[in-house]
Amino acid sequence: MPIPTNFSSPTRISAKNRAFTQIQEWIIDGTLQPKEKLNDADLAQALGVSRTPIREALQLLHVQGFVEMFPGVGTQVTSVNQEDINKILPPLGVLQALAAELATPIISQETIDSLREINSKFADAIKKGDSYSALKQDEQFHTIIVENAQNKYITNSVSNLQAHVLRLYFHQSIILTNDSIQEHEAILQAFENKNNEKAASLARKNWIRAIDEFYAEQKKN
Prior knowledge:
Elements: H1 15-28, E1 37-38, H2 40-47, H3 51-63, E2 67-70, E3 74-77, H4 85-103, H5 109-128, H6 131-149, H7 152-170, H8 179-192, H9 196-220
Antiparallel strand pairs: 1-3, 2-3
């Protein structure tokens, strides 16, 4: 189980949360490959913590679908099925739509302006072919909308699904296109017009369209 040594992690969080965040990141970006067996002693040594927070972090990652635990046998990273995009994006789209609907009446013009700046950076990344930067800008755009819904249950659910979306990106399932630029701007205009139904519809469409784009790309290959 190769573990990077040249990484940095925040120190002002609990050992369990630090372990969870770092291990999840390694699973998402493929540092820890699907089906790879995880050794809690090696992870503990690499992260400079005891085995207890590692085990607690692995339990949480198991609940969230990133690792499989086999009592008496061991723990391993879950497999990645590209077509899980069909299972992840529909519920995420519904939650994002609800967040947009709830945020519409209360989101400030200052926040909308900030979102417009993020969308501009997103557009630049798309045009440059920098898909990872585009993905991070897209994530920030939608995260701010979810935060403005002011509903921790939506926030928590979206956070888990979003982590799986990031993992799908690293396994070539998520494709970002120019269409998202216009859709983001349309969402912002719906916010400005206080049209919560349109904001919700556009937010859902923005996520669900990625399914069609995935299969269109599959046909090309």
